[in-house]
Amino acid sequence: MERNVYDILILGGGVAGITASVYAKRRNKKVAIIEEMLLGGQLASISEIENFPSYSRVSGFELMENFQKQAKSLNIEVISDTIKKVNFEGEVKSLQGSKAEYFAKSVIIATGLSYKKLGKGEEEFLGRGVSFCAVCDANFYKGKEVCVASKAGSGVHGALILADVAKKVYLLDSEDLTKYASVCPKKNIEIISFADIQKFEGKDVLEKVIYKEGKKKKALEISACFVELGKMPNTKMFEGVLDLDKNGYIKTNEIMETSISKVFACGDIRAGVLKQLVCACSDGAIAGQYA
Ligand SMILES: Cc1cc2nc3c(=O)[nH]c(=O)nc-3n(C[C@H](O)[C@H](O)[C@H](O)COP(=O)(O)OP(=O)(O)OC[C@H]3O[C@@H](n4cnc5c(N)ncnc54)[C@H](O)[C@@H]3O)c2cc1C
What we know:
Blueprint: E1 5-11, H1 15-26, E2 31-35, E3 48-49, E4 58-59, H2 60-73, E5 77-80, E6 83-87, E7 93-97, E8 101-109, E9 113-115, E10 130-131, H3 134-137, E11 145-150, H4 156-163, E12 168-173, E13 189-192, E14 195-201, E15 208-213, E16 216-221, E17 224-227, E18 231-233, E19 263-265, H5 277-290
Bound molecules: flavin-adenine dinucleotide.
């Protein structure tokens, strides 16, 4: 049977992948996006965005719909599948999904990242008091009392950002944070070491975080909890295949090409300094243009 070989297959349909598809399609390439969930990726979990050019404020959902509409208007093919394994040897690359195997002359990886979770039910309040991104959402809690869930200092940076806008920031760390007292000089940050977060409570929005300090059970009444445990790039299947940095992000050159010719990476998955929508779009544009 003859194989259906695409010019470009894009793995991941977040903003990086969609932007790459727009640029590739406008070059008249035979292109498809393979996405396991919703076209839009992390946009689906963002309540409001204030730093995407041309919008003073837009919901993640609205922006996601706009991206989806644009992909549809250009007739970009979207394949619903989860890719499990890749083979980048030879001129035709293959992506093994749970439903089928796909082939392309070029591959653009845009699988994004996942925020590390506490696993204590915080996702129930996502966008309603729980956020995984202080840089993105701090501004929504001006003058409020908030907390940061942290592990071994992972939340210190987020707490410092929040302290500029919030009335009070409780920094709850599962380990001893006394050594960070000097780098947290802001008077409105209170460090609580050895805090073991148990659960999240609230009616419609988050109202309380219940935690244990030693054997004592305590409750913190706050407007938001920022879970700042770090991020995990979705690069497991590329380990030993592509050059990754020490944190597991894919290394690329300036045209977004990886250590393998004709394999590109863009967006949050790429080793870069800022993980934001506008950067993912920029990466995607370059990958879509040069793939
Ligand atoms: C709560 C929150 C708030 C944020 N707020 C802002 C903000 O205000 N401003 C801002 O600029 N940025 C913000 N960000 C960051 C921004 O959302 C990201 O930088 C951007 O969405 C990254 O896009 P991406 O396309 O690289 O990755 P993603 O959006 O993560 O897309 C990756 C896609 O790949 C798919 N995928 C992964 N693995 C596979 C596989 N094996 N097979 C098939 N599909 C796969 C996923 O389902 C996903 O759809 C926020 C992020 C979060 C989580």
